[in-house]
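anyone seen this seq b4? input:
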Amino acid sequence: MAKLTLSQLERHLFAAADILRGKMDASEFKEFIFGMLFLKRSSDAFMQRHEQIMQEQLARGRSEEQAKQRAESRGYYGDTIFIPERARWSNIRDHFHQNIGDELNKALQAVEDENSEVLDGVLSTINFNRRFGRTTLSDQQLRQLILHFNKYRLLDEDFEFPDLLGSAYEYLIGEFADSAGKKGGEFYTPRAVVRLMTQLVAPQERMRVYDPCVGSGGMLIQSAQYVAENGGDPRNLALYGQDNNGSVWSICKMNIILHGIKTADIRNDDTLGKPLHIEGGELLRYDRVLSNPPFSQNYTKEGMPFPERFRYGWCPESGKKADLMFAQHMLAVLRPGGMVATVMPHGVLFRGGEEGKIRQKLIEADVLEAVIGLPPNLFYGTGIPACILVMRYPGSKPAERKGKVLFINADAEFQSGRAQNYLLAEHIEKIVSTYRAFADVPGYAALVGHEVLKGHEFNLNIRRYADNSPPPEPQDVRAHLVGGVPVREVLAKRELLQAHGVRPGLLFVKREEADGYAPSPGSLHSLNEPRASYQTETPPLPEVPVNPKRKRDAYFDFAPEVQSRADIKRVIEDDAQVQAQEAALRAAFAGWWAAHVPQLAGLARAKNGNLYAVRAELMASFVAAFQAPQANNQTSAPKQGSLILDKHQLAGAIAGWWEESQYELKTLVAQGFLGVVDSWIATIRAGMDDKNTKFDPFSHKLVVTLLPEYLARLAELNSQIAELDSTLKEAQTTDNEADAAEDGDADGNDEETLSEEELKELRRQLREAKKELKLRQGRVLERLEQARADLDEAAAQQLVLDIQRGELAATLEGYVTAHRQEVVTAVETWWDKYYVPLISIEKERNIRTETFTQFALSLGYYSDVT
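predicted toks r here
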């Protein structure tokens, strides 16, 4: 039986949403989809256990009636959710035809009543009879929804990897947040931000982790995954959360359960006004607190329980300024040595009044460790600039961090999206590594002492301390006037140029200055000095004598090979040293892959869930591989190619590849290499069957790898069809113009028109090409399955690993291309600024003026020219 793939399940779940979309928006119908999914999964798991109990009891010699009696006993089910008969899927599918909303509500309530210890209040928040305006969901819609969910059985053994359902549920939450727009922010924090915050506080086994504004539970789930990724057992992590929104709380509870987390303690009420995690009359304490509380809310001070939480002060009750109240609550519930990472609006960093006093006390108490500015437009529902505050239990900062606050300005570290911006793996790596180093990074991070903050009246405006504004583009007046590229500007780009193997002698020549201008001592020499990793091919520029009476800036001219702006890119890309630098990086990657591919291959044989151990080793070794000594000469010089990419880009490349490939690798652990191939084919089949999707099966990596000749023929047919279609349209246009000319409505056309026989032959060729194209497109699955039948496990292993290698190599190649383009852009900027100086413009003007004057004289326009 074919395994259900992640893409299939994602498409299946979103198709369920399409049944309801149009009647209401995503923020309204999401609970129905979540509830139906939870009910179907729980019922399937229950019936599987029910059948096991029946077989066990019959094997012990009991009658069928006795076996059934025991199978209906709650005590036999352990952690499995017990489903009463009226809520079992077979009953819902076969008997819910009228008043379906009522019947579904009763089924959900029955499940909740039977499992009150884990589901109390969770399912009763879902009301299939809820009104939208004056209408409710019809029996027809609900029946259609039931039949849709009946399509797949949702058991772990049906999935390509065990936690597929949790991954699909996360996808659905993200899609609903996207569809809901502003309202999506109520329950969803972008996954990249969650991953960043989790890495900042690094939860470990035997810790308590808490989110006081838990939303859909992403912070807690990611904390468990972080522990697993770092070799720990997530079952030894205690998870707690609370949320004020009942519907969101319900979604969180279902999300946690579907991720296989059995013991999380999630409560529903206002965290500030009624914190519910209490032990011995006191608030429960935690080792890590992660949260994205709602921005800019009001609160009520009167009757506030546990007022000692707010030891640093009270924010105004009105004016939507409760942000620092949430922050103080998080600090108040820390255990000794505990840490907080919380998202906050930028206003908390600089607003005055009571908030300013609270901020001052937080700094003076030395609980604030880092302020991290995030890129704009990351979050659903708000355009307000956001930051992350990292805080520690009073007195628990490491000695070297006491009395200091690290400011990280990462607001430029993002990838632009159509509706939102995104943090990539390299951006997360840069932020986390900078935080862990806890040191200045020019233009990015600043370590600031409390005395400096006091001098600024405890204002924490990030840009005041870590200004990442790019410096203004330098302008050399003399170069604008008489030409030449200032050597000092080239020197300023030395690191960028040398990283890619570009030396000034490739692009520039020494400018001969008639007026005695010469370079400052050593400036050209410093540009030509190779780094240890370079084996210089480009000849160095000669030293220029210095006129001691006129020590001015030196200037370059563009080399003879650079005759136009377009030549810059060609000269750089064709240079042997640039190519050698890029080849060195590719060789370093090839060596790393060869050394570590056995670990990936071993995943299919291990079958023991060691995926995260492999991840940890790959992540740790990848950056080091580009800095290790060359194996063949045992030198200590860094590898040549390592200079192109910095450690953040290298770490981001491997982390980004892992993020994209993790589900395939999970399938590899569960199903082996042939299972991965089968999963890809199932994904392609499902995409082709779905007429509403934009999925392109011909661009799938498996098709591209296995059927290159087949794809080439499809490309030929598409090109042939386009050419024939264009020729026929031109012929039709020519005929119309000829007819018009005969009628006297247009000038005659000298182009030769096609005969009727020729047109007939073209139409036949077009029909045949379209017919073949359609036939071949329809047979791509057949060809894939034929290719799959020829694979054994060894061949499948080679295929899968080659594809994975290609994807990681392509990621690296993208970084290399971007860096090379950055070099090209820098040189093009010098061309645009200085290639045509004022003296040339004036000379050209004078020549044209003289030409025009002589022409005017020849025509007699000037009677007297002196």
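Residues 163 and 664 are 12 Å apart (CA to CA). The first strand starts at residue 208 and ends at 211. kinda curious what u guys think
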